[in-house]
């Protein structure tokens, strides 16, 4: 997946602008994202395995919010999908959806780290 599929670049640019052109705010948020997201993904998995759909939905909602705040648009969309599935008692949450969430987190984290490493410049930006 290309970084533009993973990341909401306008959100990241806004964070850089808030930080007077520096990526240090994005770096701080990425550190929190790196620490928090795997825990939330595991909590979703554990809650679903225990049949605690409401807890899974709440945790997916929190992951969706955190992902949106840092511009992780693909992860945000997947968390929203899981949130909705967990809210529907008739729906089955496929293991593949959880595996995809974990993979998307890893690729998003790499894209964010690349964004920081390049000082916020992305291919195709002038």
List the helices and strands and how they pair.
Blueprint (H helix, E strand, L loop, with lengths): L2 H4 L2 H10 L5 H26 L3 H18 L2 H15 L7 H23 L9
Helix pairs in contact: 3-4, 3-6, 4-5, 5-6
Written overview of the protein:
The protein is mostly helical and 126 residues long. It has one domain: Up-down Bundle (Four Helix Bundle (Hemerythrin (Met), subunit A)), CATH 1.20.120.160. It contains six helices and no strands. The two termini are 22 Å apart.
* Share of helix, binned: over 70%
Separation, N- and C-terminal Cα atoms: 22 Å
Structural class category: mainly alpha
Helices and strands, in order, run as: HHHHHH
Task: Tally the helices.
Answer: 6
Radius of gyration: 15 Å
Secondary-structure arrangement, i.e. CATH architecture: Up-down Bundle
Strand content range: under 5%
Q: Tell me the overall shape.
A: elongated
Integer count of domains: 1
Could you tell me the CATH topology label. Answer: Four Helix Bundle (Hemerythrin (Met), subunit A)
CATH superfamily: HPT domain
Count of individual beta strands: 0
Which CATH C-level class is it? Mainly Alpha
Poorly predicted runs: none
Query: In this structure, how is the largest beta sheet organized?
Result: none
Provide mean pLDDT, rounded. 93
């Amino acid at each position: 997946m290309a970084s533009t599929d993973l990341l909401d670049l306008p959100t990241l640019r806004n964070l850089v602008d808030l930080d007077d052109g520096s990526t240090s705010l994005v770096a701080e948020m990425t550190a929190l994202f790196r620490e928090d997201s795997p825990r939330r993904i595991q909590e979703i998995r554990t809650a679903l395995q225990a049949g605690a759909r409401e807890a899974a939905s709440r945790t997916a909602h929190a992951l969706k919010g955190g992902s949106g705040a840092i511009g992780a648009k693909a992860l945000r969309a997947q968390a929203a999908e899981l949130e909705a599935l967990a809210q529907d008692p008739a729906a089955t949450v496929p293991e593949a959806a959880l595996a995809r969430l974990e993979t998307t987190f890893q690729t998003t984290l790499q894209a964010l780290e690349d964004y920081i490493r390049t000082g916020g410049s992305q291919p195709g930006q002038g």
